[in-house]
Write a structure and sequence with these properties.
Number of strands: 5
Strand content: under 5%
Number of helices: 26
Strand order of the largest sheet: 1-2-3
Shape: globular
Distance between the termini: 77 Å
Radius of gyration: 31 Å
């Protein structure tokens, strides 16, 4: 559906000839034997319409004066259809047809009015959180609290923050697009391919607490280990990562707001980030945590609404059996899979045997490593946690986030096919599958819910990126190269200025990409080419003591160059049809080809790892981790008692050593299950039966509800029943009578200081047994009758 002319030609409505990528040759589909679709199986099927629409997707048929030959094979009509005023999809060239379902005023209400309302709410929460705190510990007065939230965030709130910052516009939009293209494999590979990064990052989060709990940014580690040159190299990659993530947020969000409300894309590019700037600049990292919780709660509530609406009704589907039957019939309109020969088993949407889905999964997995391991916002989140909450928060957050693309796309993405909606390829590429399905099911209310959900997803990540850029600039540019003696108030001022600068810059960047006709899907697939080469070196900075500065820089720069070469080379080999001729060309279309993006992503990660390992092994650094702790401890601008591990208890170094082992095993096992075991066990099912598909949807339901409990209910529980901090062990001071404080005479008997209102702490001295030495009693040795210094009692 909706592929460009480069990717297909139509020889006849019943037998389209697809151009295989790189050869401009017809793709043979004659071997496909899809399951039978008939009225007995699909109750809503209109047989004569079905026969006329077979192999006739939207975008293949000619659209003349706004009309095509499209008809809905199930007879489903638009939400506002009535007998007196019919409203069908017959003759539609696309779902929205250039007419947004919501008035333009709604777009302004969502982006500005609701945006400012949330800004006021978050600002109020930050203000209330400052109540009862000493003036020097308040967010706006202490740079450590402003940039690290005091390093006191709990596990539940950390999980909510992870879900919030990892839920982009692409999470809600692109995941449903790949479900619409590849079927059930699309949501799974989107979710699993982007969950393991958070799970594995939990290992780095624990290592931060073990080796350098006082850091503010990831680049402070690079500076201590590898010096200024490496610091500048990875500063480039850190800022580039924030740039790419921000661009995807605004690009996808503005396109959807425009499609749903008609609001100008240019206006939306700036209206979306502006309210975010307000509460981020005011509340710092603490403000982003409050925003993350409120936004995540709304996102999950909307997700559960769509799940129940689609699979439990009332709706045109209302059950897993009906979804299953309709998806089989939908494959007769268009086979599932890409248009370059990477098709699904039997052309079905209900199978994990999908070559294109697997290729997307590889790109998704490789590309997303960069947007976690090289994104300052994730390092900042790990820094802000209490040590005992770090690994729990990231492991719980990663597994909870899995539900958003998996559960939501299994509902909205598959429904786009099962309802046989006239969604064009251009609309799907712009992420409009969820709003199209929501509009069909719930009318303007559904469109508003998607738009609001999307806006919150964008802003909840945008605030993290704004503060990440502000931290990189204030600590790694301003303090490092411009004002080494900067005090706390100066650091807060610079951070607030950079939050505002980046908010405005993000609108400009999104506008430039929009003018270049670069969409959300293109940027999402290409991001690993740009930042994937920095993943392994940044990981080694905290995990491998022998990685050298030359090895790290060579890996990052060499991997980037290799990725660019592979990307452009493979893109130039892709067949591009222009004026009826098959030519080789490098442009936005060919660079967006899945083969080209896969080649670039793999080269970025693999070449980088090879160079970093080989060069470092030739001349290992043998770095002393104690140096890292000492130098980063000295980087504190203002005092923060939570920047150091406790002597004992859950926040101690011993507890972190145990947590590291559990995190290592847990992250490895869960990653193995998501990437290997689960897909491998689903392959024998081939085309899913109704019972197997019902089991698959049940997993999506359960996962969505459990994730809601983790990210919404657990933080509330932790707030109501907080874990009390263990009191610090009091200093052990000998209690000596003032009169004897300067005397060598030892007290005998009992002495109770007047300032203490209770007996019990009593220094005493007495003679001992010959030859007897009592360990553990400071100042006392019993070797005859001589007392070396009394036996004071301690408090």
């Amino acid at each position: 559906v909706g592929y460009t002319d480069r990717q297909h030609t139509r020889t006849s409505m019943a037998d389209p000839a697809f151009l295989k990528g790189g050869k401009c040759a017809p793709f043979d589909t004659s071997a496909y034997k899809p399951p039978v679709c008939n009225v007995a199986m699909a109750k809503d099927l209109i047989l004569d319409v079905f026969l006329s629409q077979t192999r006739s997707p939207v975008g293949y048929t000619d659209c003349v004066e706004g009309k095509s030959t499209f008809k809905n094979i199930f007879g489903y009509t638009r939400y506002d259809h009535t007998a007196a005023k019919p409203s069908t999809y017959d003759g539609a060239c696309s779902f929205f047809g250039g007419k947004p379902p919501l008035p333009e005023a709604i777009g302004w209400v969502i982006t500005l009015a609701l945006g400012c309302a949330f800004a006021a709410l978050v600002g109020g929460l930050v203000y209330l959180s400052n109540k009862g705190l000493a003036e020097g510990d308040q967010t706006g007065n202490n740079s450590e609290v402003y940039s690290t939230a005091g390093r006191t965030i709990s596990a539940g709130l950390t999980a909510a923050d992870v879900v919030s910052k990892w839920t982009w516009a692409a999470t809600l939009l692109q995941s449903s697009n790949v479900a619409w293209v590849y079927g059930v494999s699309g949501p799974f590979w989107y979710a699993s391919g982007a969950t393991i990064q958070v799970l594995l990052f939990a290992i780095l989060a624990i290592e931060i607490k073990r080796k350098c709990p006082a850091i503010h940014t990831m680049l402070e580690i690079v500076l201590v280990r590898w010096g200024t040159a490496a610091h500048l190299v990875f500063l480039f990659f850190g800022l580039l990562t924030c740039l790419i993530v921000t661009a995807m947020l605004i690009l996808g969000g503005a396109a959807t707001i425009n499609a749903l409300t008609g609001m100008s894309t240019y206006a939306a590019n700036f209206a979306i980030p502006v309210p975010v700037m307000v509460y981020t600049a005011f509340g710092g990292l603490k403000g982003t945590y409050y925003a993350s919780f409120t936004h995540t709660a709304v996102i999950f509530l909307a997700l559960l609404i769509f799940l129940w609406k689609i699979y439990a009704g009332p709706s045109d589907l209302g059950s897993t059996d009906k979804m299953h039957s309709n998806l089989i019939c939908a494959s007769y309109r268009q086979y599932a899979g890409e248009a370059n020969g990477t098709w699904n088993f039997q052309g079905q949407y209900i199978t994990m045997r999908s070559t294109g889905g697997l290729m997307f999964g590889i790109i998704n997995t490789v590309g997303n490593f960069g947007t976690v391991f090289v994104d300052q916002s994730y390092w900042q989140g790990a820094i802000a946690c209490k040590p005992s909450a770090t690994y729990r928060g990231y492991l719980l957050g990663g597994m909870a986030w899995f539900a958003i693309p998996f559960s939501m796309a299994t509902a909205l993405g598959l429904a786009g096919r099962a309802l046989d909606l006239p969604i064009s390829g251009t609309e799907a590429g712009n992420g409009l599958v969820p709003p199209a399905v929501a509009t069909h099911l719930m009318g303007q209310g559904g469109a508003f819910l998607v738009a609001f959900q999307l806006f919150l997803a964008i802003t909840s990540t945008a605030n993290s990126e704004q503060l990440a850029v502000a931290s990189l600039f204030s600590y790694d540019v301003y303090k490092r190269y411009m004002n080494p003696n900067a005090n706390g108030s100066q650091m807060i001022f610079v951070s607030r200025v950079m939050v505002c600068v980046w908010g405005i810059a993000s609108g400009i960047i999104a506008t430039i990409l929009f003018e270049l006709n670069i969409g959300l899907g293109w940027v999402y697939g290409a991001m690993g080419n740009f930042i994937g080469s920095a993943v392994v070196p940044m990981t080694m900075a905290l995990l491998w003591k022998d990685c050298s500065a030359i090895g790290a820089m060579s890996g990052a720069i060499g991997g980037l160059i290799a990725a660019m070469i592979a990307w452009v080379t493979v893109a130039s080999q892709q067949g591009y049809t222009k004026d009826g001729k098959c030519i080789s060309i490098v442009n936005v279309d060919t660079l967006g080809d899945i083969d080209a993006q896969l080649a670039g992503n793999l080269c970025a990660l693999c070449v980088s790892a090879f160079l970093a390992f080989s060069i470092s092994l030739a001349n290992p650094q043998n770095f002393d981790w104690n140096v890292l702790r000492a130098e980063t401890d000295a980087s504190l601008i203002e005092d923060d008692k939570n920047a150091h591990l406790a002597e004992s208890g859950d926040e101690s170094a011993a507890a972190m050593d145990i947590a590291y082992k559990w995190t290592l095993y847990g992250a490895a096992i869960m990653s193995l299950v998501l990437l290997i075991l689960w897909p491998a066990l689903s392959l024998p099912a081939a085309t899913f039966s109704k019972s197997y598909f019902g089991f698959w949807v049940a997993l999506a339901f359960i996962w969505g509800h459990v994730a809601f409990c983790i990210t919404v209910l657990l933080p509330i529980y932790e707030f109501i029943y907080p874990v009390l901090e263990e009191p610090e062990a009091p200093k052990m001071m000998p209690m000596v009578p003032p009169a004897l404080a300067s005397s060598t005479q030892q007290p005998t008997g009992f002495y109770i200081p007047q300032q203490m209102g209770y007996p019990g702490q009593m220094p005493m001295g007495y003679g001992g047994m010959p030859g007897m030495q009592m360990g553990g009693m400071p100042g006392m040795q019993m070797g005859g009758m001589q007392m070396g210094g009394g036996m004071p009692m301690y408090r």
